[in-house]
Amino acid sequence: MSSAPGKGRYYALDALRGLSILLMVAYHFGYNLVLYRIAPPALLDNPLLNVLQPFFASVFIAISGASCTFSHSNLRRGLRILACAALVTLATRLFDPNAYVRFGILHLLGFAALIYQVVSPVLSKTMRFGWAWLAPFFLTYFALDRTFPVEHLWALGLRSPSFASTDYFPIMPWIFMYFFGVWLGGMVSQGRMPGWFYRLRFPFFERCGRHTLIIYVVHQPVLIGLVYLILFVMRRLGA
Q1: Are 108 and 174 in contact (CB under 8 A)?
Q2: What DSSP line would sit under the chain, residue for residue?
Q3: pLDDT at position 125
Q4: CA quadruple 91, 212, 49, 134: dihedral positive or negative?
Q5: What gap in Å lies between CA 130 and CA 147, rounded to an integer?
């Protein structure tokens, strides 16, 4: 994405996406440390992270929505992401059948790209009301923050008491944040963002932002390996 509105790359979007994926990696590392009892639960279960985790997840999903407006084929993009999501599900299920990713953020982004491919003609007529997508997002975010006496509708956001997924981003409420990002992408391409937005440069985060799919797919095996290394050292030291 270039600094000129309407063409090339928009580096600020790359940087935000890169920062978001790195924060997600850091969160998952903390999750693994808690899961393997290397760190106390308070590392993740605290007021600060309870606010920051959904906030940065929202930023990542909104930026993904913005990026779909620049994609040559969201059908191909969505199928590629879903293929990676299936790989994550298979790998995590083989690793631990009791704690695996059933419908994580990659599943959401894959389906969201396909949904956008279908509804984009209608969606384009609502873009001037882009901020309005936040209303159904917050409404469903809090309304669905519980379990329901139904099975097999967890992809839509209706999870039963027995449902479990180590990474869970259902279509609702997150599709509304994705559509908010679609509106944001239109704002960016039309040059309606502040001038500094088009000049902002953070090369390291930009590089990460251009490879978020690869980072997401490989980060957990690397983190699990690091956790096992920490456990090995702790045992050797008699901790």
Answers
A1: yes
A2: --SSTTSS--HHHHHHHHHHHHHHHHHHHHHHHHHTTSS-GGGTSSHHHHHHHHHHHHHHHHHHHHHHTT-S-HHHHHHHHHHHHHHHHHHHHHH-TTS--SB-HHHHHHHHHHHHHHHHHHHGGGGGGGGGGHHHHHHHHHHTSSB-S-SSBGGGTBB-TT---SSB--HHHHHHHHHHHHHHHHHHHTT-S-HHHHH---HHHHHHHTTHHHHHHHHHHHHHHHHHHHHHHHHHTT-
A3: 74
A4: negative
A5: 30
Tokens matching residue 187: 């704002």
Q: Residue ranges per domain, the chain?
A: 11-236
Q: Distance between CA atoms of 5 and 130, rounded to whole angstroms? A: 19
CB count in 10 Å sphere of residue 25: 17
Backbone phi, then psi, for 27, in 5-degree steps? -65, -45
pLDDT tens per residue, range 82-141: 999 999 999 889 888 887 899 999 999 999 999 999 998 888 777 677 889 999 999 999
Cis peptide before 173 (omega within 30 of 0): yes
Confidence of residue 1 (pLDDT cuts 50, 70, 90): very low
Dump pLDDT digits (tens) for 51-91.
Answer: 888 999 999 999 999 999 888 889 999 999 999 999 999 98
Tokens describing residue 218: 């490989």
- Which pair of tokens denotes residue 167? 């990474």
90: its two tokens: 């298979």
Nearest to 65 by CA among 185, 188, 174: 185
